[in-house]
Design a protein that fits this description.
Layout (H helix, E strand, L loop, with lengths): L4 E10 L4 E10 L2 E6 L8 E4 L4 E4 L1 E6 L12 H8 L1 E7 L7 H9 L5 E7 L26 H11 L5 E6 L1 H4 L3 H15 L3 E5 L6 H4 L8 E3 L19 H8 L3 E3 L9 H9 L23 H10 L4 H6 L3 H6 L16 E7 L3 E4 L5 E4 L2 E9 L2 E2 L15
Parallel strand pairs: 1-4, 1-5, 6-7, 7-8, 8-9, 9-10, 10-11, 11-12
Antiparallel strand pairs: 1-2, 2-3, 5-13, 13-16, 14-15, 16-17
Length: 391
């Protein structure tokens, strides 16, 4: 039996229930067993959250957590406790060739929750950062091996949450017309959503979007790349994007090192392109740069005019709903105790996008405590540098 824990006197803010009040939260055996204005502290280890914000554990819809298996990967167990992110959605770090290693050596051993999307490419992102020349994972379209994905489904089908395709020049070269229909077929075979990354063309975003259907996901929605931007040359939202929104395609931020522009975001939001999830695309190339962590990216959206409640919704229950995981991103009696405690800072901070443009954020979040499955999760030092640069 695990230790009983009591988070006392915190401001509980849960967008899923619209609950915003000072309450005590009692936790036992990994579950929330009490939510009340006052709970007796007898028999509990008490965490004093007076003046702090208590929220559902954050869900980062776009990460790369296969550390040791790819040079892009960062250690969720080490980084997550510093940011309040209890659920990491790994977006295609591994393909069919490397999925077993990711599952047994990272996912199963993690104190946090890692939900994987499998890459359409057999090799996944093993090549990223390894070579002195840019060779994408689908430069040879034959790496889109549907037979291998069928084998992976037979063994890991209950674990895989989606299929990932990087539909940009640096990933598939000129093979877009071949790999796009294969990605659609792969997602249908695995009976999971398809998430497509858009970047510098080819293929162009207008060619990509027809392959996404209701419940699928477009990521990097505010990227400024040529041919992959949601806005046309006149800064108008593309009709293909409006059509995708109308048919139920989900929109993910996926900030990344090169995929977020304040200017594009502001113009797109003003024209109706709101995100369904705020995510980082955190990896070794950007963790020490413009991304840092999910609260840092959330602050950029508050600098764009989003409220605290809005950014929390887009990092808790909204991505959980995209994943069809109603057990995540919520604080409810009897539910799994995934929680984060934040100090809300009101010191103005200047934040930067992928192009070097900046905005001032009046509000930022500083993580004080992270709990996953009812257990306090602390960071650690393992001597490994998470951020990496390559010449």
């Amino acid at each position: 039996m695990s230790e009983r824990l009591l988070i006392k006197n915190g401001r509980l803010l849960d967008p899923s229930s619209r609950r915003d009040e000072i309450v005590d939260v009692a936790i036992a055996d990994g579950r929330i067993v009490g939510l009340a204005p006052h709970i007796d502290a007898s028999g509990h280890h008490v965490v004093d959250a007076t003046g702090a914000l208590v929220v559902p554990g954050l869900v980062d819809m776009h990460t790369h957590a296969y550390w040791g298996g790819t040079l892009l990967g960062v250690n969720a167990d080490k980084i997550g406790p510093l940011s309040g992110v209890t659920t990491w959605v790994d977006c295609g770090s591994c393909g069919a060739a490397t999925f077993e290693g990711f599952f047994h050596h990272v996912i199963k051993l993690s104190r946090l929750r890692i939900i994987p999307f499998v890459n359409l490419s057999y090799i996944g992102l093993t090549q990223a950062g390894n070579l002195s020349i840019d060779v994408g994972e689908l430069y040879d379209w034959r790496f889109a091996d549907l037979r291998a994905l069928r084998r992976i489904k037979a063994e890991f089908g209950s674990v895989i949450a989606g299929v990932k395709l990087r539909a940009s020049n640096n990933a598939c070269g000129a093979n877009g017309p071949i790999v796009l229909p294969l990605a659609r077929e792969a997602a249908d075979i695995l009976e999971v959503p398809l998430i497509i990354h858009v970047g510098t063309a080819p293929p162009r975003i207008d060619e990509v979007l027809p392959y996404l259907k209701e419940g699928d996901i477009l990521t990097h929605i505010y990227n400024p790349s040529i041919g992959g931007c949601v806005l046309d040359e006149r800064m108008r939202l593309r009709p293909s994007v409006r059509e995708a929104i109308a048919r139920g395609v989900k929109m993910d931020v996926g900030h990344g090192g090169a995929s977020f522009s304040f200017e594009i975001a502001k113009a797109a939001i003003d024209q109706g392109l709101l995100p369904d999830a705020i995510s980082t695309d955190i990896h070794a190339h950007n963790i020490d740069g413009v991304v840092i962590d999910l609260p840092h990216v959330m602050a950029k959206f508050m600098a764009l005019g989003f409220s605290l409640e809005q950014v929390l919704r887009l990092t808790t229950c909204s991505p959980a709903d995209i994943l069809n995981r109603p057990d995540l991103g919520r604080i409810e009696l009897g539910g799994e105790a995934d929680l984060a405690v934040f100090h809300v800072r009101h010191d103005p901070v200047r934040l930067y996008d992928s192009l070097g443009a900046s905005r001032e954020a009046a509000t930022t979040l500083e993580c004080r405590l992270t709990l996953c499955k009812g257990q306090v999760v602390n960071t650690f030092e393992d001597g490994r540098t998470e951020g990496r640069t390559y010449s």
